[in-house]
């Protein structure tokens, strides 16, 4: 893809399934990548893609500021930011104050902190691309998903407002909205809930026109497209990578 070679890219949630797949694809396209994650990285993961790994809680503003400064000092100013980090709390009307504070502080406020401290680096370089991860859950209601879906709707709102604010600096901002992706999180949640993985996969597959769950690499390819100059006239937009979930 055009325009990615030697660009510095920050990927939040970079140790997660979709974050790491995106970081790997950006590395393969020639980017220098920095992974932000709360989780301790297996040393081999970052090394395999020559990445700068920074353990940081994106809901802590001071820590985010320092992490972004470290990227600029060690790799140079970032021109790509992929916000995938999220916490997953699935509650309906029974959600508590603690639930709301926790999920909002990461999915909305944390995403805003990383963006806040990355944008000045993009301005220095004359432009950039920000990709915010929402979901099909940012478009529709789902039973007992109010907490999660509210944040995924909010991400689409942030994207459109930031696209307004940042266009004059040559910074494009878009939302990437996956359908159900076959990840280790999916497999683990089946195990935790004692559900049959094959049956659950079949149930999830049937929600999509393509009758399967997506693969992390399919999401990563779309993120790389939005990061690249091949999407140079796209901003304030939602890119669905959902196998036809929302077309049903
Ligand atoms: N997997 C799917 O099917 C799917 C579908 C639609 C949308 N999404 C979206 O894609 C994104 C990535 O999902 P995933 O499946 O890769 O999940 P994941 O759990 O594998 O990755 C999320 C990562 O975010 C990190 N994280 C959580 N809180 C953090 C914090 N406070 N600071 C820093 N890092 C933090 C986690 O440690 C984890 O590594 C999310 O925004 C999710 O809403 C996923």
Q: Your description of this structure?
A:
This protein is of the alpha/beta class and 248 residues long. The protein has one domain (8-181, 215-247): Rossmann fold, CATH 3.40.50.720. It is 45% helix and 16% strand. It has helices at 17-28, 43-48, 61-74, 97-125, 146-166, 184-192, 197-205, 216-227; strands spanning 8-12, 32-37, 52-55, 78-83, 128-133, 171-178, 238-241. It has a 7-stranded parallel β-sheet with strand order 3-2-1-4-5-6-7, with helices on both faces. Strand 1 (8-12), helix 1 (17-28) and strand 2 (32-37) form a beta-alpha-beta unit. Helix 1 (17-28) packs across helix 8 (216-227). The radius of gyration is 17 Å and the shape is globular. The model has no long low-confidence stretch (mean pLDDT 97).
How would the global form be characterised?
globular
Bound molecules: nicotinamide-adenine-dinucleotide
Superfamily (CATH H level) name: NAD(P)-binding Rossmann-like Domain
Q: Sketch the topology as an H/E string, one letter per element.
A: EHEHEHEHEHEHHHE
- Which fold name corresponds to the CATH topology? Rossmann fold
Distance between the termini: 31 Å
CATH structural architecture: 3-Layer(aba) Sandwich
Count the beta strands.
Answer: 7
**The biggest beta sheet, please?**
7 strands, parallel
- Number of domains as seen in the coordinates: 1
The helix count comes to: 8
Q: What low-confidence regions span 5 or more consecutive residues with pLDDT below 50?
A: none
Task: Specify the CATH class.
Answer: Alpha Beta
In terms of structural class, how would the helical and strand content be classed? alpha/beta
């Amino acid at each position: 893809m055009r325009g990615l070679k030697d660009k510095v890219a920050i990927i939040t949630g970079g140790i997660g399934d979709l974050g790491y797949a995106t970081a790997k694809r950006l590395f393969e396209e020639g980017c220098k990548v920095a992974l932000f994650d709360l989780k301790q990285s297996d040393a081999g993961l970052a090394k395999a893609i020559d990445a700068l790994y920074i353990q940081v809680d994106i809901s802590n503003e001071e820590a985010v500021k320092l992490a972004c400064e470290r990227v600029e000092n060690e790799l140079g100013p970032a021109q790509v930011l992929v916000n995938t980090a999220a916490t997953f709390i699935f509650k309906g009307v029974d959600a508590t104050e603690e639930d709301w504070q926790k999920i909002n502080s990461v999915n909305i406020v944390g995403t805003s902190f990383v963006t806040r401290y990355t944008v000045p680096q993009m301005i220095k370089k004359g432009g950039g691309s920000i990709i915010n991860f929402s979901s099909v859950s940012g478009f529709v209601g789902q039973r007992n998903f109010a907490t999660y879906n509210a944040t995924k709707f909010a991400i689409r709102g942030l994207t459109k407002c930031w696209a307004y604010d940042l266009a004059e600096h040559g910074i494009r901002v878009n939302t990437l909205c996956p359908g159900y992706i076959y990840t280790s999180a999916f497999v683990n949640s089946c195990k935790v809930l004692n559900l049959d993985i094959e049956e659950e996969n079949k149930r999830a597959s049937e929600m999509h026109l393509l009758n399967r769950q997506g693969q992390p690499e399919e999401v990563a390819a779309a993120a790389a497209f939005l990061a690249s100059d091949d999407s140079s006239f796209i901003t304030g937009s939602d890119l669905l990578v959902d196998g036809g979930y929302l077309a049903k």
